């Protein structure tokens, strides 16, 4: 007999007491595994995540967590053949599997890169600039993100058993939040296989990942105000979750990704001979057939100008007729099976509802020619193309979660916008046009109803990732019918799992709390130039106060001639005097910054390896000829790089004049050798 799927709870694998129900191969109907609803103690899993997983994760910095994600992705890639074989049994072709399996690994790599490049090697994220709250500068505030002492419960859909898990897990892990993953039953055997390899890797801190196979009954009962639930599935189930007392009154944060009647609009400027026409047709067919249309981002509504409807119908029919439906591992198959016979019946029911106001123009919902498998035992279905009658309501209300799209016509751009909005909120929409005015009108019109929008034309087609591909660096979610949630989005997705808090206090207190030097905090001016200190020796607040330097007219004239920057404020006395901002010749801002560097740089070889940038440069007060400037440079943030012999140091640079007035502020970014701890 096939294996009974196990959960991974409280650090060990849990085998249910009964075998449960069989899970069928989508291609053959053979039993792949058995799944039981009698799972482990969910309340104990939640407690274990909070008491063991959370503390273990929170003691790691963002960079350490990011490196674990990277190594985890590399480890999983060594088992791709195993995962591909199981993925085929879900009905996924090689192309479909790449989207799910490779896409999941790519998401881990992406979040790892984002974590190492955009987050500090620390456990706190600063949000925005310092907010002064008093005139004297002794009372200030800083918004910060900190990790929650809770758990992320992730309830996933059947269509992406790998990517669907990893796209939720990665940002939660980076945020320091342990995860309990609840996969959908029908394809849970693939998720179990991936989690088993993740656990075996030994890379994950104990308790940071648990897997619940079977029923999640009672799980939300164990959650509280520090916990987050991420759900992908039907709007009906999402509504039930929203009604749970712990969500309504208990403070549990719920993120829902639900039904989505995504649309693709063909611009009125596009003719049959334009490259955009072929792009449009190819995109629609791709979204109908990848994963057999079982994608929350698939195109359900094909919105085209009325005068182009016949041409679009003919072109789509011609391309769909070449789609080979077959066993997922057959080399000729371009579209595999739906995930189960039950799912196929759900799609057929939806098609019958859609046909109340739409004409069937391609495909047969009840039968299809199958290559390499039997239509009688596998969950195969023909691609179905419908054409809606004017004023049809069903295409805007009913989602057939399979290879089904409906052509809908419009008369004006304003009507196209209105039709798109009738979907009541979508994950993604696309517009194919080469007209910039059309693009602006449509995008601004439909943006409030969409989480992501793709504008496709001949210029971006070669690099476009496509209508239906959620990207780790972009938000995934949508308003209204689509659930009102938001996932991924790079660092945004990490922050969704954290708590933002406004912290008020003195500058010294905020520096101590955040580990980031705060304007107004104590500076440590010592005998040793900070540039002579390696990372092991350097401390936040270490400061150099430079000597003074007069900015002469000769300096200004030379800089103008040398650089070619002869703007009148630096070279024309009469014009400069008439300028109400300057009232006379002033030094170039970049001359001031250059002279400032000469005041604080230590020229000898040492721990400072390179200057790699300047951030937040602002010129505050004009520097006139013969003004005297000086620089105060303070170590603001120290970020050791993992797996490198150096780290980054951010310095606060303040340039003042002879009256002590700030004339320029900026951050200097350097690479500094680590030295020995």
Question: What can you tell me about this protein's structure?
Answer:
The chain is built from 19 helices and 28 strands. The two termini are 57 Å apart. The protein has 677 residues and is of the alpha/beta class. α3 (80-89) packs antiparallel against α6 (188-200), α9 (275-289) crosses α10 (309-320) and α12 packs parallel to α13 (436-446).
Enumerate the spans where pLDDT stays under 50 for 5 or more consecutive residues. Answer: none
- What is the multimeric organization of the chains shown? single chain
Strand order of the largest sheet: 14-15-16-13-12-17-18
Instruction: Please report the distance between the alpha carbons of the first and last residues.
Output: 57 Å
Q: Biggest sheet, open or closed, and with what strands and sense?
A: 7 strands, mixed
The percentage of residues in β strands lies in: 15-25%
What Rg do the Cα atoms give?
30 Å
Output the number of helix runs: 19
- Determine the fraction of residues in helical runs and give it as a percent range: 25-40%
Structural class category? alpha/beta
- The coarse silhouette is globular
Number of strands: 28
Summed up:
The chain is an alpha/beta fold.
Write the layout of secondary structure elements.
Elements: E1 7-9, E2 12-14, E3 21-24, E4 31-35, H1 42-58, H2 62-77, H3 80-89, H4 94-118, E5 125-132, E6 140-147, E7 152-155, H5 163-174, E8 179-182, H6 188-200, E9 209-211, E10 228-232, H7 235-242, H8 245-248, E11 253-257, E12 263-266, H9 275-289, E13 301-305, H10 309-320, H11 341-354, E14 358-362, E15 384-388, E16 404-410, H12 413-421, E17 426-432, H13 436-446, E18 450-456, E19 475-476, E20 487-488, H14 491-496, E21 498-505, H15 507-514, E22 524-525, E23 542-545, E24 549-551, H16 553-563, H17 568-571, H18 573-578, H19 589-600, E25 608-619, E26 627-640, E27 646-656, E28 662-673
Parallel strand pairs: 7-8, 7-10, 8-9, 10-11, 12-13, 12-17, 13-16, 15-16, 17-18, 22-23
Antiparallel strand pairs: 1-2, 3-4, 5-6, 6-21, 14-15, 19-20, 23-26, 24-26, 25-28, 26-27, 27-28
